[in-house]
Amino acid sequence: MHPSVERVAAAAAAKGLNLEIRETAGARSSEDAARAVGAPVGRIVKSLVFILSGSDLPLLLLVSGSNRVDEARLAAHVGGAVRRASAEEVREATGFAIGGVSPFGATGDVQILMDEDLFAHPTVWASAGTPLHVFEIVPLALRSATGAAVLVLKA
Fold first, then answer.
1. What 8-state DSSP symbol labels residue 129?
2. CATH classification of 3-151 is 3.40.50.2000, yes or no?
3. Would you say 25 and 36 are in contact if contact means Cβ atoms under 8 Å apart?
4. Which of 4, 33, 117, 147 is most open to solvent, judged by the fewest CB atoms within 10 Å of its CB?
């Protein structure tokens, strides 16, 4: 098993979750992931990293695959300007490459925010550490295990 996938599984297990991790042909986009698991794109969790300006605080956003992040709304929620993290900053903050960022197993401290729209689905699919690996989880379990604050992305 890939070391990043092992890290994700171990981090989830430490939170009391036994993830069933599935290998796919590739899930570099929400649409690819949705096709790979046979689910609507809204059930795909995009893991996006932003940086709070004036700090080094990485924000890990767990966003429904059908939504886009309104940076102004995000900035208002976190109390400061934000910017998308570079590929290098993503890897530094999480230990994962873009396309494989998981809600579990970050190697650094990240503040996790979760899109309210994910709760409209019975289960969602998230990355398990590589662009090829995913897992299915109940949104409330994801929120509870990650300690995510809920973020409303839509007006």
1. S
2. no
3. yes
4. 147
- Sign of the C-alpha dihedral computed for residues 80, 48, 103 and 39 taken in this order: positive
CB-based contacts of 64, cutoff 8 Å, min separation 6: 42, 43, 44, 45, 46, 115, 117, 118, 124, 153
3-state secondary structure of 134: strand
Alpha-carbon distance 91 to 85, whole Å?
A: 9
**Is 36 strand, coil or helix?**
helix
pLDDT tens digits along 83-132: 999 999 999 999 999 989 999 999 999 999 999 999 999 999 999 999 99
Domain boundaries, the chain: 3-151
Q: In this predicted model, what pLDDT tens digit does every residue of 53-75 receive, in sequence order?
A: 888 789 999 999 999 999 999 99
